[in-house]
Design a protein that fits this description.
Layout (H helix, E strand, L loop, with lengths): L2 H20 L5 H4 L10 H27 L15 H8 L18 H22 L8 E4 L3 E4 H24 L12
Length: 186
Amino acid sequence: MSHEVGELLSQVEAARSLVLQSVADMAESQAAFKTAEESWSCTEVLERLYLAEMSGIAKIWSAADDLRAGKGWTGDRPHRGKKIEQIIEETWKPKEKAPSIATPHIGGPMRFWRSALLSLIPLLADLGACLRGKPLQDILFPHFISGPLDARQRLEFLRYHMERHVAQIQRLKSHPAFPRASRSNA
C-alpha cells in the first residue's frame, strides 16, 4: 500500500476511534437522547456514520474498478488538488441534509452501531489494498453535494465526516437536558 493511502487510512481510523471514545461510557438511555424530534440521537449518529462510510467505501472501490476497466471519470474536475475542508467550505450550506442512503432508518441499540462501525475496519483495509499503486487523483466519483471527488478527497471526507459528528455527539452530551443516567442499561 502506498504511503499516502496508508496515511489516509490511519486518519480515518483515528477519527473512528474518536467517535467510539465519545460514546464509550454512554448508557443506552443517554444514547437515545434527542434535543428535538427531528434531530438525531447519538445512536442515530453512529448509524449515519456507518451507512455513510459503507457507501463511501463502495463508491471509491467502484470508481477504482471503473478506472481499471478503462471507464474512469471523464467529466470536469473542479476540485483538483484541493483538501476536503476547502471543498466543503466552497460547496456546502450551513445545514445540509444527508442523502437518504445515509440517513438513519434501521434503528437498533448503540452497542450494535458501535460494533457495526468496528466491522468496517477490515473493509477499509481491503479498500486500501485495492488502491495500492493506483493514481488516487484519477479515481473519481461524484459526491451528492460537492461533485466529483477523487479517492484522496473521499478518504479525507470519511475522516472529516466522523470528526464533524464527534462534535455533534459532544454537543448532545453537553446539552442541559442530557440524561445523567447510570450505566445499568448499557
